[in-house]
Amino acid sequence: QVQLVESGGGSVQAGGSLRLSCAASGRTFSNYVLGWFRQASGKEREFVTAISWNGGRTYYADFMKGRFTISRDNVKNMVYLQLNSLKPEDTAVYYCAAASSGYSSSWRQYNYWGQGTQVTVSS
Fold it and tell me: Which of 28, 39, 98, 112 is 20 to 30 A off residue 74, Cα-Cα?
């Protein structure tokens, strides 16, 4: 079992930045691919980014175009998502997730989920 707790969400104006954090506890953190997903109101959950177990590989959804950066710290059992140049369409609940089966952009392949943190971007 892995427990994930997100923090760092909030309200910002377009063009602003936020840093989301996800604290993990439970099973060996470094065994898992970690990902961030988001879900806007009335829309399906979508893949944002993921990072391999040692941080050596990162994967990003095309829509981000270099605005977001994922990182992890296996000593502190933390994963981070730096959000820059935010747009109103980035407004969503952002979820941290862990996958034991390797990288996937499908939320169905992730075994554990946090409760989510709200990001609201105003124009």
Answer: 39
Query: How far apart are alpha carbons 20 and 59 in whole angstroms?
Result: 17
Residues 103 and 33: beta-carbon distance below 8 Å: yes
Task: Provide the CB-side half-sphere exposure for 102 (13 A, CA).
Answer: 0
Residue type at position 8: G
Mean pLDDT over residues 13-33, rounded? Answer: 91
pLDDT at 55: 84
Structure tokens at 33: 């691919």
Looking at residue 9, its amino acid is G
Cβ-count burial 6-17 (b if 16+ within 10 Å, e if not): bebbeebeeeee
Of 19, 13, 10, 37, the closest CA to residue 87 belongs to 13
Whether the Cβ atoms of residue 25 and residue 41 lie closer than 8 Å to each other: no
> Please, which pLDDT band fits residue 36 given cuts at 50, 70 and 90?
very high
Q: In 3-state terms, what secondary structure has residue 54?
A: coil
